[in-house]
């Protein structure tokens, strides 16, 4: 009988012969290939009477590249309340994945954005959304990682205290917003852009 004196002597299994399958990358949107922006709709603070912000989502391409660009003009109230965003109503089952990744580049004075997810068809108020803040990388394109465990419940920009977690098996809306920061230490205003190559689950 073989005796292993230490951990280094223990043979490792051949992963090629094991029946272990890891979830593949699941692209929600790949704007570098065939995905378009027609199904994205604006969702900015103009849904309320005091709102004055604007967001546009367009496809930008030439013979060398293809990507989407999120343009935002944020005109918040004095307390920072305001948002400019877009969203796509589409159903995804992301079971087996642990995070979203977005390959992007931000330009402008402010580069604070947030990813907004909704589940179970609860896509509008008074239902709350699940959100995660991120900084758009400047100068060069980079990947931002957004773990599903870090998406927290919000209602009109304010954190909701409850025990419900995001159901990634029933994602029914995905959105991107530039936020004014009414409940954040940093306030934002003015124009900003976020260039996006793709959004995927891994």
TrEMBL record:
One of its GO terms (molecular function) is unfolded protein binding. GO terms for biological process: NADH dehydrogenase complex assembly. InterPro entries: Galactose-bd-like_sf, NADH-UbQ_OxRdtase-assoc_prot30, NDUFAF1. Residues 29-196 form the NADH:ubiquinone oxidoreductase intermediate-associated protein domain. It comes from the Eukaryota. Pfam families: CIA30. This is NADH:ubiquinone oxidoreductase intermediate-associated protein 30 domain-containing protein. The lineage of its organism: Eukaryota, Metazoa, Ecdysozoa, Arthropoda, Hexapoda.
